[in-house]
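Hello again,

I reread your note about wanting to compare the complex against the isolated chains. To keep things tidy I'm splitting this into two emails, and this first one only covers the full assembly. Below are the input lines as submitted, including protein chains and any nucleic acid or small-molecule components. They are followed by the predicted structure of everything together. The single-chain runs will come separately.
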Amino acid sequence: MNLPADHGPADPAQPVPLLLVLLGPTASGKTSLSLALAERFAGEIVNCDSGAMVREFEIGTAKPTAAERSRVPHHLFDVVDAAGYVTAGEYARQARRVLRDVSARRRLPIVVGGTGLYLRALLDGLFPGPERSEELRSRLRERAATRGSTYLHRILIHLDPVAAQKIHANDLPKLVRAIEVCLSSREKGSRQKMSQLWQQQGRDPLRGYRIMRLGLDPERQALYKRINQRAREMFDSGLLEETQALLAKYGAEARPLASLGYKQAAQFLRGELSREEAVLAAQQAHRNYAKRQMTWFRREPDVIWLRSFGDDKPLQRKASAHVENFLAADQRT
RNA sequence: GCACAGGUGGGUGAGUGGUUAAAGCCAACAGACUGUAAAUCUGUCCCUCCUAGCGAGGUACGAAGGUUCGAAUCCUUCCCUGUGCA
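Full-complex prediction:
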């Protein structure tokens, strides 16, 4: 906090603003490390976690607490309600806006999160594809429900054989999106295919920032253990009550209620699982999720990996040292 | 102690004489991912070897024997587990 936050705004005369990205699987301690770094380097935290964007979902999303949020500015938490949703494109737009603001204030933006797709949308950008079309989607889903997803795959083979080869016949959401892209561009007469969009390099990357990525990668077994503890604590500290209230307010169909922890809590409330079974299932779901996150992040370029938890003090010192180098390198420019 | 029901790969659970190294599901591990992503999907999954294949060999369905050209599957004994009766 005493450092002169000399990583200025997007002014041609000024050095390029810096962006710190902190990624890692669930329960790896991102919140803790992000707070430490934000306090030390005059930073502001920009959420990159789909679940944490939803209002009223507190316990199960492991958002930073009110106390933690009062220590340093936090952005993009609690921006939609359970009835709404945030697409990757929408996230990227909002996050970029926040980034500019933070940089303009000469503070260090720290993007923190575990949603790989959102991060990619923010940093690399999405191709200029059409937005989702609700009625087309529900029509396609209906077809898939009666005739199987293979039916959609056959449609895609006609529309875009290259894409059809890359998307598995069982992967309903991706088939739907690909068909959506092909059809809606056809309506506009452009006849753009999904596979052509894939080929476009660079898409719409975030420009004007020097980016440093820090990744948390604690030892797998230790991570799983921590996930188990945390999932159980969620149940012990009110997840069931929270879920019940959300269920009453938004109904069972609200998408976030199908997410990690909430899904299992709802199953218990409906009597489908015992409480203990629900806890175990939630733990399992979190572990599986963490693994998928790591699969995604391993592909992320130029990550400085730190092999421990974010609340680990030695790790925090190491992370700080990296950030210091990063800032210093910038001043030399 | 008697009577039933069982003992299958990390788990669950099919299979009841032969194309069975043994379905399916789960876990584990690896991978993909371009607009609801905390979603969705894919691959591997007994061991060893290689020319890496719908390849070769070796182990394997509680244990030991037996029947059979051939057994996870049939018979015998034994050891465990659950339930019922004592």
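For quick reference: Confidence is low (pLDDT under 50) at residues 1-10 of chain A.

B.
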